Amino acid sequence: MRQRLIESGINLFDEKGFTETSVEDITKELQVTKGTFYYYFKSKQQLLRDIHLGYIEYLLNNQEEILKDPGKDSKDKLRATIYMIIHSIQSQKKSARIFFREMRNLAPEYLKQNMEKRDLFRKNVQRIVEEGVREGCFEENLNTDMITRGILGVTNWSYYWFNPEGEVSDEELTDIYLEMILNGITKK
Amino acid sequence: MRQRLIESGINLFDEKGFTETSVEDITKELQVTKGTFYYYFKSKQQLLRDIHLGYIEYLLNNQEEILKDPGKDSKDKLRATIYMIIHSIQSQKKSARIFFREMRNLAPEYLKQNMEKRDLFRKNVQRIVEEGVREGCFEENLNTDMITRGILGVTNWSYYWFNPEGEVSDEELTDIYLEMILNGITKK
Q1: Domains and CATH numbers, chain A
Q2: Alpha-carbon span B72 to B80, nearest angstrom
Q3: Helix/strand/coil for A98
Q4: With contacts defined as CB-CB under 8 Å, which chain A residues touch B149?
Q5: Disulfide engineering: B138 pairs with which of A177, B6, B131, B132, CB 3.0-4.6 Å?
Q6: Cα A48 to Cα B28: distance, rounded to the nearest angstrom
Q7: pLDDT digits (tens, 9 = 90+) for B93-125
Q8: How far is A141 from chain B (nearest CA, A)?
Q9: 8 Å CB contact of B140 and A177
């Protein structure tokens, strides 16, 4: 039931917005009582927090797998990161949009927790870039902080437009973006 | 007065959200009557539309200047585009965030108008990339649509984190991103 309430929350928050959705909208959709909702969540805001946590922890867990793989050099890890984010659009699109759009509706203590995890994810990507610089695989004078934010711009923006069922697959889009980030678009 | 109502709307929509802001909140801040508001705008939604239009037309007007400059080749035009967007963060940050966040609160006919202008802006950037391919300055086999969306991901994402008063200036950030997009981060 908890999972069904979360899913219903994801659909309604994405469609109508957090403020515009009431607990009643959620329970009505599932044909359960409000008591059922409050058995699992203290408030609508706690449901929002759990949706946010679910999304960022999905990313962090997948990232951990990538980071600890001893067979991957920094280019491989960068590719795996870009693919992981783009591939997650299929299952996480709505959660991700809620994550980016409804952050200011989180209570301060939830927001802080959320930001820390988000920063950790970004810093981990930056570690990959820095590792590549140390290994002599990426340019020496990179501003690794700005470059990391640029890479995450490319991937995160795709949540707003990429259709995994469209002409370009998530594998292909990963290759297009990895190639641009690694080698640029200038004719060699 | 119209401009002051727009500015007050921008501040409140950005801070509290469109749905959470009433016409009264806006008029109270300016110490004017509701009648004053309705003299300039039919509804709160029309104010939102005008904020959206103001932002996208700011971008389109600046883009036109760049496109018609005969002294610029495609790399120059790409640089000018990236700089224009990053530079606009200082004056347009709040409008841009409202633009991306509150789009679904526009009435269907306003949304359509909005999307058309947004698509025009993106297609114009794509024309620069295509021109570069034709001139032999960019790689032949680029997927110009996906690359354009990637470039706009880098720039648009910066609305969410870039602080023009921070350590990196808008000129420097432009150079960092232009270099990544043109030549990549791999060590040459």
Answers
A1: 1-41 (1.10.10.60), 44-183 (1.10.357.10)
A2: 9
A3: helix
A4: 157-158, 161
A5: B132
A6: 31
A7: 889 888 888 888 888 888 898 899 999 999 999
A8: 10
A9: no
Place of tokens 């496109």: B67
CB contact under 8 A, B181 and A182: no
| Of B158, B152, B80, the residue nearest B119 (C-alpha) | B152
Q: What is the DSSP string of B59-90?
A: HHHHHHHHHT-TT--HHHHHHHHHHHHHHHHH
Q: Which of A129, A136, A152 sits opposite B187 (nearest CB)?
A: A136
ipTM of the complex: 0.90
- Cβ-based contacts of B152 with chain A (< 8 Å): 157
Give which of B15, B20, B94, B185 to mutate to test A binding, by max A Cβ within 10 Å. Answer: B185
- The residues on A that touch B, with CB distances below 8 Å, are 17, 19-20, 75, 100-101, 104-105, 129, 132, 136-140, 142-143, 146-147, 149-150, 152-158, 160-161, 168, 173, 176-177, 179-188
β partners of residue B72: none
Question: Which residues is B186 bridged to in the sheet?
Answer: A138
Q: Check pLDDT > 90 for residue A136.
A: yes
